[in-house]
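To: structure subgroup
Subject: Chain for Friday's discussion

All,

I'm putting the inputs and outputs inline so they're searchable in the archive.
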Amino acid sequence: MIHTSKMMAGLPAVAVLTLCAGAAFASGGEAAAAMPQDGSPWWYWPIILLVATFIMGVIAVLGGVGGGVLFVPIISGFFPFHLDFVRGAGLLVALAGALAAGPGLLRSGLASLRLAIPVALIASSCAIVGAMVGLALPTNVVQICLGVTILGICILMLTAKKSTLPDVPESDKLSSILKIYGVYREESTGETINWKVHRTPIGLALFVVIGVMAGMFGLGAGWANVPVLNLLMGAPLKISVATSKFLLSITDTSAAWIYMNQGCVIPMMVVPSLVGIMLGSFVGVRILKVVKPTFIRWMVIGILAFAGLKALSKGLGF
């Protein structure tokens, strides 16, 4: 049974994002003009979007991927919305989950501020640049780049292996200066683990690229954060996942303001998307207990590959 307290934890995030979305598009006429003009009633596409994002929310939890990674390629590829509006909504979809989960992850000690602050400073700054570049480029170019990126994510999911507790012989000089280390308690074993990181300069350099891509495509960056933090820098898997989730609340906020400032956020898209994703997430958590993870992993990879090819063909004009 889903406890009411857990459901209520996500409501402040939805409220904040809904208010931001409303402020971004105060003019109802502009919002209506941006919606598909196919003669359907005003409520038709929001309801379809609600159903689609509900299913995405379920799949995102089962597949262990962020909602934004599924939202942008699928909605841009199969719905009659302009890519700019889809990317703006995608950032807020990713941001909703991060805002809901971030405080709890910090209180539990799993999300590390020592690790998050230098990464967030780089990634959020670059996300602003990425958002500005993405809005300046022609739509077909962004579609092609999005398709290539989604197919790259599929390859990453196929090949990447996550290490629960990587072997880090010693901290490098930069991580020692920044004091990136910590202690957490592994509840499954009762063990207290001291962790540290290495290869910090390379990791921080990669977050420049991750930040630009997050802002440019509106995907969120959880798909890239965890491999870099865990496999490259050597942070434990739980610390990497929790810190990545917390990072989205900073990185995606920076990029989302650029899309809002340019009028690329429509409440009629954002509100049903947020509600659908979060309701789907609650259901996905329950299904996760009984479903086979291998099947879900292949299903997510298949959906992303199909959506990536669709975005690529759409950008190429096929």
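Points worth raising on Friday:
The longest helix spans residues 83-108.
The radius of gyration is 19 Å.

D.
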